[in-house]
Amino acid sequence: MNAPFFKFDMFSFDISLVVAFIIGIGFGFALERGGFGSARILASQFYFTDMRVLKVMFSAIVTAMLGVFFFVAFGWLDLSLVYYTDTNMIPQVVGGLILGVGFVVGGYCPGTSCVAAVTGRIDGALYLIGVMAGIFIFGELFPLIENFYSSTDMGRVFLPDYLGMSYGMVVLLVVLMAVGAFAAAEWGERKMAAKKSGVVK
Amino acid sequence: MMSITGIFSKNNEAVQEKVHEPKPYSNPYLVGIGLGLVLLASFVIMGRGLGASGAFSSIVATGVYQLAPDHTVSNPYFQEYVGDGSINPLKDWLVFEVLGVFVGGLISGLIAHRVKKTVEKGDRISVRNRLIFAFIGGGLMGFGAKLARGCTSGQALTGGALLNLGSWAFMMMVFAGAYAMAYFMRRQWT
Lengths: 201, 190
Known about the structure:
Chain A is mostly helical and about 200 residues long. In chain A, about 70% of the residues lie in helices and about 0% in strands.
């Protein structure tokens, strides 16, 4: 198997758009199944009452990470041909903080707001208009912040290289961290439910 | 089976709710595994992961280009999305993927009877204020996602699974920002 298929010219650009649409359907379907069309469910992550965001995100990351790891190990997938963004540490840290604030203020992230809007959530539709306004403002301000945007450029940084560990070891650590986070989330939810029902343990 | 046109009709809704209660959401771990397999398929087939905010950048850049072409070409950020004008900037992988997200979300919502015209909010905030916050939050998210070179899908999910250093730093900061702000937003949600 020679993957990624597209990078080995197994199909044309036009076909890749059909693939994009089908993969998007899977993505949107999963988000709605998870309850991510509802801002109340997404926001409850940040009040420790329903930890679905963490559970879905980390089980998705672990599933895809393990798949990639084994496909690479079997020689089926060339990881150097899989695209990910370069690391620009400080702008990404600042961007992440702004995005986190936007998450709890607006109740969605861009992908989930599409699902919210299409399932009738008016706040989801307004949020999407806000996203486009934010992108427009960023674009207009870009000449002023271009230097900051391009600062602390570290290039393409693979976490195992950065940590000086083997790929397998980092994968194992992420799995262990996720399992720990799941256990903490289940415990926290039970604790919050008990507090809400007035049963103090 | 309810008709697509009937979903938003008020009369229908009262009847539908009696017949079809919205189904409970699926097990989050199973949803996560399903989402992870979609992401893995994207890596294997395309050599890239999922995204969302990038599609809206293409849409915004296209809109600005329609209104003020000279201005767009002189702005390096919009210019990157519009290109040299030889291909339509909306003929883009992420734009088609996000179209799919709308369709997939609608299919899942219809199957589970969860499509409903409503505003998601806690009991202690008015509809008007909730909508203002939704708009502001979206604006912050759009700005932050551009600065970070991606949002929850393009960075946290995709870069997380590929063990990209910047994505992991980003992901930690998203949770930090949201938890730090949660107390001030409690009237909106709890």
